[in-house]
């Protein structure tokens, strides 16, 4: 049949493309040994923007305060919370003089806009070097600040870190969330390693105040509700000014969503920013996703019709072997090895999930960051 012939050659083409993509873009990051620069102990302003995060602040802020670092302030931004967030911040500030509070109230021009709140917090920071995380994040060690900021130097004004999620036993949703996070990290860290940085995550991200104001802050995309991390990095990051930090002591961990509905809502908000990336970034990322979709679609159809199934099966296995080797090295770096046995199934689910989110966002886009 002509259709099956077309699918067969399409399958071979996209499988080859996938293997080449893994080898060219992901393998340099996978096989390169990581080194830890000497800690610089530069003054740091650690910035946390919180909206209705009273309980998380009680739980995780002590881990931030107890960081083994000689010179850092903590800028806590209360973004128009209506729970006890402000009271919790004030209780910590009374005991710790290095805590500064920025209380942001909603206004008509920047209603429910996290970027506005972050801008006020950045302006109030006394130090040039800024480190960002979220209120629901905990550092992986007491040397988190030291590990991340050691990657600043006279040329590097941006440091991209890894923000993972806490592992929950016997939870399929947890594995899906962590796999999606892992694969996103594989992409943005690999691209940054190659000199093509395109995004970072606000759970673990550092840049200088000078770089922020040189780019006029978030002004170019202030009208877009999300993207205070990835859109800003997409705008200013280059091969010359960006470093990555993936030592295990530099990670942060967050509590993942516990319901599928909540996670879908979160991902819908995150995905809306991708359409605003630079054109060449969108092309490279879109080619990878389209090749994934076509690989699974054409492979399943060909196997269903037993059309040259021996060749199709061999090609699928070879592609999975290549993927498994590279992903296993990266997952070891990012401490996500337990996901490896589920790799093909999780990848298939993620391909279908992203397609569903894309279609859903065409119908209705989220309007608030929280």
From TrEMBL:
Top-rank taxon: Bacteria
Kindly indicate whether the keyword Phosphoprotein belongs to this entry.
no
Q: Name one GO molecular function term.
A: glycosyltransferase activity
Keywords of this protein's UniProt record, alphabetized?
Answer: Glycosyltransferase, Membrane, Transferase, Transmembrane, Transmembrane helix
Q: Which residues form the Glycosyltransferase 2-like domain?
A: 45-190
Q: List residues traversing the bilayer.
A: 6-31, 283-305, 311-330, 342-363
The entry sums up its family as follows: Belongs to the glycosyltransferase 2 family.
Q: What name does this protein carry?
A: Glycosyltransferase, catalytic subunit of cellulose synthase and poly-beta-1,6-N-acetylglucosamine synthase
Q: Give the organism the record lists.
A: Bizionia echini
